[in-house]
Amino acid sequence: MSQLIFYTNPMSRGRIAHWMLEEIGQPYSTVWLEYGEAMRTPEFLAVNPLGKVPALQHGDVVVTEAAAICAYLADQFGDAGLIPLPGDPARAAFYRWLFFAAGPLEAAVTAKTLGWQVPEGKRSMVGFGSYDEAIDVLETALQPGPYVCGERFSAADVYLGAQLGWGMMFGTIPKRPVFEDYVGRTHSRPAAQRADRINEERINSTKRSA
Predict the structure, then answer these.
(1) Pick from 179, 109, 107: nearest CA to 141
(2) Domain of 60?
(3) Segment 75-122, tens digit of pLDDT
(4) Is the domain of 99 the same as that of 64?
(5) Does pTM surpass 0.85?
(6) Are 43 and 97 members of one domain?
(7) Where is the domain boundary, 63, 81, 99?
(8) Which of 145, 148, 161 has its CA nearest to residue 19?
């Protein structure tokens, strides 16, 4: 089996992909990169020309973007049971909410954080409509629970659980009961806790050596 090489920084969206790697239970090696010159070396730019993390190398294949890494790993390592099988109606919900989180929700949160307002009469031109609409849509989607695909935890929950957790921590997403319950369920998974521990240990070791 080709080796999984994971490029990340503990203070990045790489923590989402790190959680996913822990979920699939396959061996992988981690390349920790500091922000700045370490992400602009010719070696890393050959992996990701944008010079950002996370990035995953799997043999001759490179995958970037946290949502894409989650989907790729779920598909490649199907024995982990983190993606509904083709033909399963739950597969539609998997793709729908994974890419809603990576697209409209991410854009809505970023716009709000930067103080950018959609110009009057231009809401139809942006994928999220408005921040409030995106948040309300997500709350409605998660209300049936317990996960995006019903009773079954999937890679979509890795991405969305991480995104909501960070958003509520930093105040970019409101602490609604539905969101708090969902994040509590997803983050109680052993893989999530292992990934958090690995990243926090990296942060602490970097501080000690500074």
Answers:
(1) 179
(2) 4-81
(3) 999 999 999 999 999 999 999 999 999 999 999 999 999 999 888 888
(4) no
(5) yes
(6) no
(7) 81
(8) 161
